[in-house]
């Protein structure tokens, strides 16, 4: 018995080794870069410094980009929750075709998001399809100009990441026992009151899981602002790309990348804290 | 209240699906539109964009490179990932949660961080950028997705069969090959398809590691930046059809698997 499980455990190593060399080690390398001010093989030894991180806070330009990225990702997340909640609720509680519809929902998700963003560009541009329709119908007199702005970036991000919110929300709402809601109603709660006190509260774990899946990729996005955004919508991703591919300051670029990773990891830890609290909540039988 | 039809929710969900599919519909229309630009009214149907795509060397090369990267990464990640998942779920007892959290990082971390760190790593050790670098990095990401998709299936299998098999005189390797592998085959194929799709669609990590070469997402990105040819629509139509086929195959595999399992039990 113990021999079998020992052999089975040895299956771990090839995959783990690959993971360690091509995922963990590179992370370690940029962490080293972010705390030093020269190249690793420059021959003059490593000088540890915090200056790369201080530099982020010294220039207003960088703080602006950081703040803007947080703002754009936050708005994206809020709207993706609002947009997807009714859909997730419908799929979980009001239809028998939920599994088929979920498969349907996943089809565009598997198609490269660049292509879908390109289609939005066609829809939103000044002589684009939406404008042509609106002008033709006489709703607007002048075409709206939305492309190459923060709004366009946010619209693109919401579109791309909202399906990521639907899935965990659907999964959590599906597990909520409908009789809890009925009990609340029998005890005199209004429909809206019962919804917020029971269903909404119990679906918070789904909202948090969805938030991770939307906020983190939105924060690190770089293609969408590059395609839909203008000069006022540069995000962390564009800034980091610029540092590595054009400016060539690896140490500062690494510090910025690590800051992004740290923000994401903080969010994940925060989530697991709340998730922990939530499970205590559930153990009490509520 | 129970029998009342949720009119609002139904309409809302329908609108949501239209919203999700709207870009695809637009792309389909303009893949066959005769006109040069993107204007209404439409100007008759044409196949000329399809012909133009097939005559575009760069696009064909991009599709070929993407296929090579996706097939190789999916195959390596399916093999290593299956072994890894089996070991983590059924073999490891100490530090299991810590290990799982660590292995989930590629799913949760921004691709930008992964791409940048891989770029810096390969440049630091003077490993040339290009398709091999992309594959090495894609596998390290896909492993997590294979783990994620196979965890449930592997938790469900009972290793007593393996023990019984070994008690009856089979070697450990034979028990793996003849018992565990057939049981897991559908899950392995699903994991393969999953990591294929991830590699095939992956843009950010590829963008940093591809060097001067080209893959399909990179090609599309460059097209988006410098003028948009309806050829891109044709690629999208082909990918959509391909994706739907893949989903149909996946669903069929699941059906067959469930049938076989029902027969055994």
Characterize the biggest β-sheet of chain B. Answer: none
State which percent range the strand residues of chain A make up: under 5%
> How many DSSP helices of chain B?
11
CATH-derived architecture of the largest domain in chain A = Orthogonal Bundle
As for the CATH topology of the largest domain in chain A, it is MetI-like fold
Largest interface: A-B, 94 and 85 residues
The major sheet of chain A is characterized as:
none
- Rough outline of chain B: globular
Helix and strand sequence of chain A: HHHHHHHHHHHHHH
Mean pLDDT over all positions of chain A: 85
The structural domain count of chain A equals: 2
Count of beta strands of chain A:
0
What is the quaternary state of this protein? heterodimer
Count of structural domains of chain B? 1
Determine the fraction of residues in helical runs of chain B and give it as a percent range: over 70%
- Name the CATH superfamily classification of chain B: MetI-like
Briefly note the CATH topology name of chain B. MetI-like fold
Structure in words:
The complex is a heterodimer of chains A (286) and B (265). Chain A has 286 residues and is mainly alpha-helical. Chain A has 2 domains: 11-49, no CATH class; 59-283, MetI-like fold. Helix content of chain A is 78%, strand content 0%. Chain A has helices spanning 2-10, 12-34, 51-58, 60-94, 98-110, 113-124, 129-136, 150-175, 178-186, 191-202, 204-219, 223-228, 236-247, 250-283. In chain A, helix 8 (150-175) packs antiparallel against helix 11 (204-219). Residues 276-286 of chain A have low confidence and may be disordered. Chain B has a single domain (57-264), classed as Orthogonal Bundle (MetI-like fold). Chain B has 11 helices and no strands. Chain B has helices spanning 7-31, 48-54, 57-91, 96-108, 111-124, 131-156, 160-167, 172-201, 204-209, 216-225, 231-264. In chain B, helix 3 (57-91) crosses helix 10 and helix 6 crosses helix 8 (172-201). Chain B starts with 6 loop residues before the first helix and ends with a helix. The mean pLDDT of chain B is 86. Chains A and B meet through helix 1, helix 2, helix 4, helix 5 and helix 6 of A and helix 1, helix 3, helix 4, helix 5 and helix 6 of B.
């Amino acid at each position: 018995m113990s021999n079998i499980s020992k052999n089975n455990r040895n299956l771990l190593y090839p995959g783990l080794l690959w993971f360690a060399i091509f995922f963990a080690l590179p992370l370690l390398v940029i962490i080293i870069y972010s705390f030093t001010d020269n190249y690793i093989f420059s021959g003059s030894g490593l000088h540890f410094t915090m200056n790369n991180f201080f530099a982020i806070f010294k220039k207003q330009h960088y703080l602006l980009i950081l703040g803007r990225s947080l703002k754009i990702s936050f708005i994206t997340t809020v709207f993706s929750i609002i947009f997807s909640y009714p859909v997730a609720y419908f799929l979980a509680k009001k239809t028998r075709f939920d599994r088929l519809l979920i498969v349907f929902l996943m089809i565009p998700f598997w198609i490269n998001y660049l292509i879908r963003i390109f289609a939005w560009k066609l829809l939103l541009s000044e002589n684009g399809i939406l404008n042509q329709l609106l002008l033709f119908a006489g709703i607007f007199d002048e075409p709206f100009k939305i492309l190459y702005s923060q709004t366009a970036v946010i619209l693109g991000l919401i579109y791309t990441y909202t399906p990521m919110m639907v899935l965990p929300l659907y999964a959590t709402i599906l597990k909520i026992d409908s009789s809890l809601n009925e009990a609340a109603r029998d005890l005199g709660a209004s429909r809206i009151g019962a919804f917020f006190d029971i269903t909404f509260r119990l679906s918070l774990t789904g909202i948090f899981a969805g938030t991770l899946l939307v906020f983190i990729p939105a924060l690190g996005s770089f293609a969408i602002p590059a395609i839909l955004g203008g000069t006022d919508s540069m995000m962390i991703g564009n800034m980091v790309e610029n540092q590595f591919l054009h400016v060539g300051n690896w140490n500062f670029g690494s510090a910025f990348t690590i800051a992004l990773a740290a923000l994401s990891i903080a969010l994940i830890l925060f989530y697991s804290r709340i998730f922990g609290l939530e499970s205590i909540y559930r153990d009490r039988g509520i | 209240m129970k029998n009342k039809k949720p009119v609002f929710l139904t309409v809302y969900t329908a609108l949501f699906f239209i919203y999700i599919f709207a870009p695809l519909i637009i792309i389909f229309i303009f893949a066959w539109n005769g006109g040069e630009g993107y204007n209404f009214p439409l100007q008759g149907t044409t196949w000329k964009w399809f012909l133009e795509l097939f005559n575009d060397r760069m696009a064909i090369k991009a599709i070929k490179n993407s296929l090579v990267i996706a097939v190789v990464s999916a195959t390596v990640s399916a093999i290593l990932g299956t072994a890894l998942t089996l070991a983590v779920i059924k073999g490891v007892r100490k530090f299991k949660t810590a290990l799982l959290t660590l292995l989930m990082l590629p799913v949760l971390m921004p691709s930008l961080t992964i791409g940048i760190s891989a770029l810096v790593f390969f440049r630091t050790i003077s490993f040339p950028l290009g398709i091999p670098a992309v594959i090495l990095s894609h596998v390290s990401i896909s492993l997590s997705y294979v783990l994620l998709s196979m965890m449930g299936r592997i938790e469900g299998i009972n290793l007593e069969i393996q023990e019984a098999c070994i008690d009856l005189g089979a070697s450990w390797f034979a028990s793996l090959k003849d018992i565990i592998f057939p049981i897991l085959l559908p899950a392995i194929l699903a994991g393969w398809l999953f990591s294929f799709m991830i590699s095939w669609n992956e843009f950010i990590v590829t963008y940093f590691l591809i060097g001067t070469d080209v893959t399909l997402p990179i090609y599309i990105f460059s097209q988006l930046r410098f003028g948009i040819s309806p050829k891109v629509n044709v690629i999208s139509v082909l990918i959509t059809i391909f994706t739907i086929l893949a989903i149909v195959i996946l669903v069929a595999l699941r059906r067959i698997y469930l049938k076989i399992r029902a027969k055994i039990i």
